[in-house]
């Protein structure tokens, strides 16, 4: 039986893939007293567009608060997505994957 994918490992793989893209800056949000509860895991800018990505394992579900935060960012004009793989993260930003 294959071990369950940990969200932290998925976040690391996505950040590594995104950092390889030209014209992209990405930051992992860390929960602190100054953070906003429910904000997406990854924040950044790709070719002048702000993005917010919530990373979930294939079995993971969004909380209502996470849904609300993504909607808030979307209304402000950011690219937003829930991503469950490196491929989904790249696709959400319109980045062609190297074959």
What can you see in these coordinates?
The chain has helices spanning about 5-20, 65-75, 85-90; strands at about 25-30, 40-45, 50-55, 80-85. A 4-stranded mixed β-sheet has the order 1-2-3-4, sandwiched between helices. The protein is about 30% helix and about 20% strand. With about 100 residues, it is an alpha+beta fold. The longest helix is centred in the first third of the chain and has 13 residues, at about 5-20.
Question: Which terms would index this structure?
Answer:
99 residues, alpha+beta, 4-stranded mixed sheet, 3 helices, 4 strands, 32% helix
SSE blueprint:
Layout: H1 7-19, E1 24-28, E2 42-46, E3 49-55, H2 64-75, E4 79-83, H3 86-92
Parallel strand pairs: 3-4
Antiparallel strand pairs: 1-2, 2-3
Helix pairs in contact: 1-3
Total number of helices: 3
Strand order of the largest sheet: 1-2-3-4
Rg, alpha carbons: 13 Å
The share of residues in extended strands comes to 15-25%
**Which spans of ≥5 residues are poorly predicted at pLDDT below 50?**
none
Distance between the termini: 29 Å
Largest sheet report:
4 strands, mixed
Average pLDDT metric: 91
- Counting helices, strands and paired strands, the structural category is alpha+beta
Give the SSE order as H and E letters.
HEEEHEH
Helix content: 25-40%
* Inertia-based shape: globular
Q: Could you tell me the number of beta strands?
A: 4
């Amino acid at each position: 039986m294959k071990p369950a994918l940990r969200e932290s490992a998925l976040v690391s793989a996505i950040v590594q893939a995104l950092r390889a893209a030209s014209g992209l800056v990405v930051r992992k949000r860390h929960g602190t007293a100054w953070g906003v509860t429910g904000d997406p895991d990854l924040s950044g800018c790709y070719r002048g567009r702000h993005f917010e990505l919530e990373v979930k394992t294939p079995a993971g579900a969004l909380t209502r608060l996470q849904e609300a935060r993504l909607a808030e960012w979307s209304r402000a004009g950011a690219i937003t997505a829930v991503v469950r793989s490196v491929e989904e993260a790249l696709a959400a930003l319109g980045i062609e994957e190297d074959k």
